[in-house]
Amino acid sequence: MVKTVRLLAAVMENEGMTFPLHLGVTEAGDGEDGRIKSALGIGALLCDGLGDTIRVSLSEAPEAEIPVARKLTEYIAQHSDAPYIPGEAAEEFDYLRPTRRRTHAVGNIGGEQPPVVLAFHWEGNDESDLQLLPDYIYTGRSLPEKRQAVPYILDADVWKGEANTYPAFNYNTMNEIDNSEATVKFLFLPYLLLDQASDIIKRHPEIVIISQSMHPNRLGEHRALVHQLMKEGITNPVIFFQHYAETEIEDLQIKAAADMGALVFDGFTDGICLLNQNNSIPTRLVESTAFGILQAGRLRTSKTEYISCPGCGRTLFDLTNTLAKVKAATSHLKGLKIGVMGCIVNGPGEMADADYGYVGAGRGKISLYKRKECIEKNIPEEEAVEKLIELIKLNGDWKE
Ligand code: SF4
Q1: 311 CB under 6 A from ligand 1?
Q2: CATH architecture of 305-394
Q3: Digit-coded pLDDT (tens) for 137-155
Q4: How far is the CA of 301 from the centre of ligand 1 (A)?
Q5: Which CATH number fits domain 116-296: 3.30.1360.40, 3.20.20.70, 3.40.640.10, 3.50.50.60?
Q6: Which of 186, 209, 277, 279 could form a disulfide with 168 if both were Cys (CB 3.0 to 4.6 A apart)?
Q7: How far apart are CA 75 and CA 165, in angstroms?
Q8: Are 337 and 307 in contact (CB under 8 A)?
Q9: Domain extents for the chain?
């Protein structure tokens, strides 16, 4: 969706056309998925000044859509007069057909590997979800007594080389990088200080840059840093650090996805680190938002993918409850794409890349699909979720 709108806008500009553009991510789903997918796609375009009207399409009651759309546009509008960040685009970057930025691998970060999730923990906010552990946990000045089964990151001036830990440097400590033996070194770095750090980065391929921005034009600063790295031929991986203080998970999902959208679609993302400096949102939800952003951008799969329509006058069953039932039965099937669509008129076409589909065929009747093929027609609705499970089992895609 982002690529097609970027291309469309470019062609229209060349042809002197000035028609307004409407933006929406179709079949975005419900809950966290629906909010993150919509904010990632629509946000990526609005941040670049593309789009005149939007629809956030959710598989929920229609009245749930408007508040999400308003939050998104209001958040983007807050940045509309943010100061310009001086910087130059890298020649090799193609905004209309972006590919992933070329980076070298530092451990499990960068290169051809999927982006990592770096969690930011502090006292009182220090338990990740055991089902969905982040790849690294930054704890700053000290290690917790009870460590989870992932590498930890400590500030370089207190790091003593403890097993399975790595140091994080910043502007004040970066001159110590030459003296450190660590095999992976993290460097918190805002673009405006890159000039002072670039010689050090060039000497140390083991540095992973954590792009930091406290600037009102946060996207501009993150982007400018990556462009400058590309211009200087620096291929160290970059993790984007995004800082919030939200009390509602929905606000965090919308803002973080909108801030990451352009960075995901530009191909710049080797990792993501979300910090929400407010204990009212549990750590596991902040981390789930980070994983959700990577999945919505099709960069990393960590859960079952659902493609579900928002429903309309053609919907032939209770979409919200049915989607909840399908999710309850299949949410452990990481990597599978399951479509839940209200009708056979548009459903099969719009879930074309799903592995399995649950589609309304008539009042109280469901048809089941395997990829684009209809396998069972007109099953009574009350039996359809069980039949879907049977179909997934029959094809060897089920896990207990
Ligand atoms: S046309 Fe069919 S697939 Fe599209 S929103 Fe309506 S019910 Fe869903």
Answers
A1: yes
A2: 2-Layer Sandwich (3.30)
A3: 999 999 998 899 999 999 9
A4: 26
A5: 3.20.20.70
A6: 186
A7: 37
A8: yes
A9: 2-78, 116-296, 305-394
